[in-house]
Amino acid sequence: MLLVPAALTGWAALSIGAAAVITVALSTLIPLLVLVAAFEAVFALHVNVERIGRYLQVFHEPGAGWEHVAMTYGQRFPGGGLDPLFARVFIFSTSVNFFPAALGGEPWEVAIVAVCHFAFIYRVRKAQSTAAALRAEDLRRFEALRDAASASPDAPGQTVLDTRQTES
Questions:
Q1: What is the DSSP secondary-structure string of 130-150?
Q2: Which of 4, 25, 52, 165 would be a feasible disulfide site paired with 101, CB 3.0-4.6 Å?
Q3: d(Cα 89, Cα 24) in Å, to the nearest integer?
C-alpha cells in the first residue's frame, strides 16, 4: 500500500539531490535504479497476489465465489479497471527523470542514459502484457494440478501434492 508512494518519494529526493550536486547526465541513472527496483517490487507483489487468488479460486472456492466473479468481471469488461502495476506512473516518472540528462550533457552521455530509460519503459510495457496473460495461465495450471491430484491419489485421502511434500 505504501510501496509506491515511498518509492516515488525516494526517487524524487534522489533526483533533486543528484540534480543539485552532480551535473553529469549519467547521474540520472541513480534515481532510475530506484524506479526500477520499485517497479520490480510492485510487479512481484502483483504476480504473487494474482497467483494466490487463482489458487484460492481453484482449490478453496465454491462455484461462484469472489475470485470467480472478479475474473468474470475482468473478462466481460476489459480495460475498465485500475492499473495494478502503476505503469503510467512509472513511465511518467522515467520521462521526468530523463529531462535533466536531455537538457544538458554530452551526446554520448545522453545516448547512454536514453537507452537505459527506454529499456526500463520497455520492461514496464512487457510486464503489463505478461501480467495480463498470467491470470488465465495460472488458472489453467492450478486446474491441471487439481485434476491430476484428484485423478490419481496414491492413498485414500492423499493427493499427489501431499505425496510430493512428504517425499522431500
A1: HHHHHHHHHHHHHHHHHHHHH
A2: 25
A3: 25
* CA separation for the pair 56, 139 (Å, rounded): 10
Q: Which helix (H) or strand (E) holds 59?
A: helix 29-59
The pTM assigned to this predicted structure is: 0.82
The domain segmentation of the chain, as residue ranges, is: 3-149
Which residue has cell 491441471? 144
CA atoms within 13 A on the CB side of 143: 7
Place of cell 515511498: 6
Rounded Cα gap, residues 59 and 112, in angstroms: 49
Q: State how far the alpha carbon of 101 is from the alpha carbons of 4, 88, 147, 159, in Å.
A: 24, 21, 55, 58
- pLDDT by residue (tens digit) across 111-152? 999 999 999 999 999 999 999 899 889 989 999 999 998 887
Distance, in Å, from the CA atom of 118 to the CA atom of 112, rounded to the nearest integer, reads 10
Contact between 81 and 166 (Cβ < 8 Å):
no
d(CA 81, CA 96): 25
